[in-house]
Amino acid sequence: SLILTNLAAPALAAFGVTESGNNFIVDTAGGLVFTVDKTTGDITSMLFNGIQAQDQSKHSHIASGIGATCTWTKIGNYIKIPCVTSTLTQYYVAQYKNPGIHMATYTTAEPSVGELRFIARLNAAALPNGPTASSVAGSSSTVEGSDVFVVSGQTRSKFYSSRQFIDDQVHGVTGSGIGAYMVIPGTGYEASSGGPFFRDIDNQGGGQQEVYFYMNSGHTQTDASYRMGLHGPYVLQFTTGAAPSADISLAFWDGLGVTGWVPTSSRGYVKGKASGAPSAFASLVVVGWSNSEAQYWARADSSGNFYSPAMKAGTYTQTSMSRT
């Protein structure tokens, strides 16, 4: 006799987008499922390995929300979601098998809030571990305005989480079995403002665990005006805890049809040797290039040699900065 047995196969995650009401539900097939409200451009859910990383009382978004209209398209192993207003387009990109949300922000005018930032408002219960200096939960009093607080006899503030741009390519928060990191790879700061030593808010831990990418702000800004164009790319990367590398390939952006994107093949480089600094400080020399559209920088090696990142075509002011 022939016995037929039904064996239930395990369900495999399917890379794609499901539309439900106003929501685009994006499955990366890599452990992350995130939801974008197509009527606002807000991220309303981020499920990583079953853990809800998104705070459920507030959303994650550019500025304080931009009221954008979103669409989506699948391009090979990528899903592109542009969220569009009259002066700003926020791009969300899902990569097959990658538990991250790749992003870029194209602007033709400054947001009405007067600064350009992406803020991930995360679930503080799931991701309780951030920088102590910017953890303001349980504060007993306010020292200055609404930004500096007293916690357990210490002054703490979101401003204390800042790091100079040249050293700030990865920052994030963690919890049990989960890490959420903002990664600014390669030339991700090229349309930001302030230069290599400018620093801005990375985190605030309170009712929500907030992780930021500040592209420009009036927080002791050193540039006379803000740059428009394409900011980033950057990625909100999820891991099981460990910090990811900032050394990631950006070549896939070449094929996504993103406004303002300039591929490496259309860029150039500057190399040279910095002189004049005492030999003991030669490796502390930073060379920067800037104009109204972009900014770049590179550290010199111990002999003073420097090599720029891939730069957009243009005329730049070159500045050598050293510590003596």
From TrEMBL:
Gene3D superfamilies: 2.70.98.10, Carboxypeptidase-like, regulatory domain. InterPro entries: Carb-bd-like_fold, Gal_mutarotase_sf_dom, GH-type_carb-bd, RG-lyase_II, Rhamnogalacturonase_B, RhgB_N. Keywords: Carbohydrate metabolism, Cell wall biogenesis/degradation, Disulfide bond, Polysaccharide degradation. Residues 15-260 form the Rhamnogalacturonase B N-terminal domain. One of its GO terms (biological process) is cell wall organization. Transmembrane segments: none annotated. Residues 266-319 form the Rhamnogalacturonan lyase domain. GO terms for molecular function: carbohydrate binding; carbon-oxygen lyase activity, acting on polysaccharides. PANTHER family: RHAMNOGALACTURONATE LYASE-RELATED (PTHR36574). This is Rhamnogalacturonan endolyase. It comes from Rhizoctonia solani.
